[in-house]
Design goal:
This protein has 11 helices and 2 strands. The protein is mainly α and about 300 residues long. Helix 1 (about 1-25) packs parallel to helix 3 (about 65-105) and helix 3 packs antiparallel against helix 5. The longest helix has about 40 residues, at about 65-105.
Length: about 300
């Protein structure tokens, strides 16, 4: 009896650890290259111990066949990668914005190792990646990430076949939204680079003997730093709001969401249907004539018999 209880407890703990550990190894703020592997492993074990009494009820019985156990562990790894990968893709918008800013401001030559991404990148991209990690822990967004891991056991119960098609579609939507947000964050610098290039072209035609590279590049870098200082608060605020909105929608769980989980849980970005409905409502309101508005708002007199 004791051996059976111990076997069931170890199986439950290890199955929970597979999903939680996979998510922790990918989540931003926890999976950075400068965080030692031993700390990440210990944090995963601690979170598993904390969540085990709450989510152990969703763990299925231990399968009798090795193939079923392998498929069960593989499904848990896929779900953990989805949870952590979504958060990582969202935060990669800052790296995209920093790379575009560096290229448009003349700072692309200053390359360094990005500790957050683990690759070589522009200095501005590394700075914005650090800014994203600071925003996560300064605004307690890491608790929202941990809550999403706990809620995933209600949305994706262990033992059920994960919807790979929905996972793929959702990953594509989040990736496209991250690229879009990265370009939007760097939009002021794109406009600034266009103005600078047009001015350089006109100046080169007027004064061909002027060493434009030595005169304009320092001015371009100084103006880019000034523009970065002015837009830093907006970049951090937009990233915070977008991440919070996306992660909150990811943590909404419903019991009957096994067939199409991301659609029923709100795991999608705004589509054109909502905008078209709002535009159609505004058009119907604007098409109403003033006479009809007056007639509808005028008080109606009750008709009484003589």
């Amino acid at each position: 009896m004791l051996a059976e209880v111990l076997t069931t407890g170890v199986f439950t703990f290890m199955l929970l650890f597979v999903r939680i550990g996979t998510a922790i190894m990918v989540l931003p703020g926890f999976s950075e290259a400068y965080v030692p592997t031993s700390i990440r492993l210990g944090l995963s074990l601690a979170i598993t111990l904390a969540l085990a009494p709450v989510v152990a009820q969703y763990v299925p019985p231990e399968p009798s066949e090795p193939l079923s156990l392998f498929l069960l562990v593989l499904a848990e790894i896929a779900i953990g990668l989805l949870i952590g990968g979504v958060a990582r893709i969202i935060m990669s918008a800052l790296h995209i914005a920093g790379t575009v800013i560096a290229f448009k401001s003349g700072l692309a030559y200053a390359l360094t190792i990005d500790p957050a991404q683990g690759v070589q990148g522009a200095l501005i991209a590394s700075f914005l990646s650090f800014l994203g990690v600071v925003v996560i822990f300064a605004t307690d967004l890491h608790f929202l990430l941990l809550g999403a891991i706990a809620d995933s056991y209600t949305l994706f119960t262990p033992g059920a076949y994960p919807p790979i098609g929905d996972f793929t579609q959702f990953a594509l939507e989040v990736t496209s939204a991250a690229f879009k947000m990265g370009i939007q964050l760097s939009a002021p610098f794109i406009v600034f680079a266009m103005v600078i290039n047009v001015g350089l072209g006109v100046l080169a035609r007027i004064m061909p003997a002027l060493p434009i590279f030595f005169v304009i590049v320092p001015l371009q870098i100084w103006v880019a730093f000034l523009l970065l200082g002015l837009t830093m608060t907006g970049i951090a605020r937009i990233t915070l709001n977008s991440s919070r909105r996306a992660w909150r929608s990811s943590s909404r769980a419903s019991s009957g969401a096994q067939s199409a989980p991301y659609k029923k849980a709100g795991l999608r970005w705004p589509t054109k249907t909502t905008g078209q409905a709002k535009q159609k409502t505004r058009h119907s309101e604007s098409s109403t004539t003033p006479t009809a508005r007056v007639m509808s708002s005028a008080p109606r007199k009750s008709v009484t018999g003589r």
